[in-house]
Amino acid sequence: MTDAHSLPLLSLHHLTMLSAHPLELIDAAAAGGFDYVGLRIVRPMKSDSLVDVVGNGALIRDIQQRLSDTGVRLLDIEAIWLQENSDFGELEAALAVARELGASSVLSVGFDANQARLQENFERLCELGTRYDLDIGLEFITYCAVGTLRQAQAMVAESAQPNARLLIDALQFFRSGATNEQLVTVDRSLLRYAQLCDGPAIGPVSLDDRRREARVARLLPGEGELPLAGWLAALPAGIPLSVEAPTLKLAGLPFDEQARIVGQTTRTFLRSLPEIACSSIHTTRKDLS
């Protein structure tokens, strides 16, 4: 069994309770015993609703104070969906805020059918990231242009950017058909953190149903059938786990209560695993930068 002191550092992903204001999310992360939080400060799509953090100096200062008061740290910001019309002026402003708030990583997604343009934009984002000492994690999503582990690996390799990383989401990993055996072969230096959740062994078939599952109908770790023990064992020891588990059963509960349930369920699951499946040690901010 995994000892409590060897549990990996945990982050509360914003999608787990997307309607939470950034300050509410930080408070919830503290209530749930999370070490980190991930904040959505970039709209994936122009039409998506969002609390505007970028450009709001007062809110940025409030977030800094709340992080300091609670001891919760910012792991990453999201979600940069690279598209034909991506505005790199706006994206650079978001990266500057991410650095100001202490983040070490940025979540990006390829959402452009023009492969050459997508590759160029990913490299451009990575170059911007170097100005702010930020890793750019490329997440593959089955209903996006970059939908498999191999496609994401190829884009990261072709970029030749020192801060280009792979971001592995447990649900998307298994829904794409990837295997734990494949994960073991991935360059360890490309994996700085991973996103954890659970789900049924067999996922939805249609694009719309897959999107719905990912956004609102995931399961908490240990409550589904995904082979997470082997997945965790295949990840590098020591990387934080961002719990991205929006689930309908918690909808409507106060954010603090949701976070306590998510945190406790996740830690109970991790403690139930054999030591080999979860041998992470606590990781400092220096290690993540």
Structure, briefly:
The protein has 289 residues and is α/β, with parallel strands linked by helices. The chain has a single domain, classed as Alpha-Beta Barrel (TIM Barrel), CATH 3.20.20.
Which short descriptors sum up this protein?
about 290 residues, alpha/beta, TIM Barrel, disordered N terminus
Distance between the termini: 30 Å
Q: State the fourth-level CATH superfamily.
A: Divalent-metal-dependent TIM barrel enzymes
- Rounded mean pLDDT is 93
Element order: H for helix, E for strand? EHEHEHEHEHEHHEHHEHH
Shape: globular
Figure out the total of helices. Answer: 11
Strand content: 5-15%
Query: Got a strand count?
Result: 8
Strand arrangement across the biggest beta sheet: 1-2-3-4-5-6-7-8
CATH architectural category: Alpha-Beta Barrel
Total discrete domains: 1
Helix content: 25-40%
Classified by CATH, the class is: Alpha Beta
Largest sheet: 8 strands, parallel, barrel
